[in-house]
From TrEMBL:
A Gene Ontology molecular function term of the record: phenylethanolamine N-methyltransferase activity
Protein name: Phenylethanolamine N-methyltransferase
Family: Belongs to the class I-like SAM-binding methyltransferase superfamily. NNMT/PNMT/TEMT family.
SUPFAM superfamilies documented for this protein: S-adenosyl-L-methionine-dependent methyltransferases
Pathway: Catecholamine biosynthesis; (R)-adrenaline biosynthesis; (R)-adrenaline from (R)-noradrenaline: step 1/1
EC supergroup of this enzyme: transferase
EC number(s) on file: 2.1.1.28
Annotated catalysed reactions: phenylethanolamine + S-adenosyl-L-methionine = N-methylphenylethanolamine + S-adenosyl-L-homocysteine + H(+); (R)-octopamine + S-adenosyl-L-methionine = (R)-synephrine + S-adenosyl-L-homocysteine + H(+); (R)-noradrenaline + S-adenosyl-L-methionine = (R)-adrenaline + S-adenosyl-L-homocysteine + H(+); (R)-normetanephrine + S-adenosyl-L-methionine = (R)-metanephrine + S-adenosyl-L-homocysteine + H(+)
GO cellular component entries: cytosol
Length: 283
């Protein structure tokens, strides 16, 4: 599937939870470059078609940040995977951005891009598209420079732990906003684990802060090289209910149906959801 994706936060788990242990074990076979080819190169990475999945995700993010309501000092990207596109609109609104992932191979992939090292994945087509839809007259080079400057750290994360970032205090908490794309459903063996993971990351967010959550609808597996990763299939209503249980007010919920020509055999995803939710004060 796509997005920030999802290799992102399985984590060390107690031996008493075989479901979470199986997820963590499966992700040791995750191949970032295969995942990026499957989801961010054509056909899914073709941004020239306005009805494609890539333009839809970028449009959801750009339009939400354009409201001016989702802003502040600190933002944490939960389960970044090997991708940066999810932060291209966010970086104009937050000065201190933390990226996170459970897998060191994904954290290394992020470092390659942030340091502009040879062999880094080329996100310039995404940066160009975001500049186009934002319409601020900014060049894609300026956009990427701003994002690189505002990502202050890349940290390990385990969304299945009550303290997902551990107790080290390496990121400023609580954050003003969270972004998470294709993470929670992709590292949870069942809906109960999905709900607990959402509860855990919510502790990182200040009351009144905002969560932008993107994920797969009705997906049960996806490929990342030799790895076949299980996904808990979620429906729109289940996402809505989980957010309410975790203490959010839903500000926006949009869905996208994956067209036949983008069902390429790398997963069984039926669609995508985008949610903008605000943590209630007192939660």
């Amino acid at each position: 599937m796509s997005g920030t994706d999802r290799s992102q936060a399985a984590g060390a788990v107690p031996d008493s939870d075989p479901g979470l242990a199986a997820v963590a074990s499966a992700y040791q076979r995750f191949e970032p470059r295969a995942y990026l080819r499957n989801n961010y190169a054509p056909p899914r990475g073709d941004l020239s078609c306005p009805d494609g999945v890539g333009p839809w995700k970028l449009r959801c993010l750009a339009q939400t940040f354009a409201t001016g309501e989702v802003s502040g000092c600190t933002l944490i990207d939960i389960g970044s995977g090997p991708t940066i596109y999810q932060l291209l609109s966010a970086c104009a609104h937050f000065e201190d951005i933390t990226m996170t992932d459970f897998l060191e191979v994904n954290r290394q992939e992020l470092r390659l891009w942030l340091r502009e090292e040879p062999g880094a994945f080329d996100w310039s087509v995404y940066s160009q598209h975001v500049c186009l839809i934002e319409g601020k007259g900014e060049s894609w080079q300026e956009k990427e420079r701003q994002l690189r400057a505002r990502v202050k750290r890349i940290l390990p994360i385990d969304v299945h732990q009550p303290q997902p970032l551990g107790a080290g205090g390496l990121a400023p908490l609580p954050a003003d906003a969270l972004v998470s794309a294709f993470c929670l459903e992709a590292v949870s063996p069942d809906l109960a684990s999905f709900q607990r993971a959402l509860d855990h990351i919510t502790t990182l967010l200040r009351p009144g802060g905002h969560l932008l959550l993107i994920g797969a609808l009705e997906e049960s597996w996806y490929l990342a090289g030799k790895a076949t990763l299980a996904v808990v299939p979620v429906r729109e209503e289940e996402v809505r209910e989980a957010l309410v249980r975790s203490g959010y007010e839903l500000r926006d919920l949009r869905t996208y149906t994956m067209p036949a020509h983008l069902r390429t055999g790398v997963d069984d995803v039926k669609g995508i959801f985008f949610t903008w939710a605000q943590k209630k004060v007192g939660v």
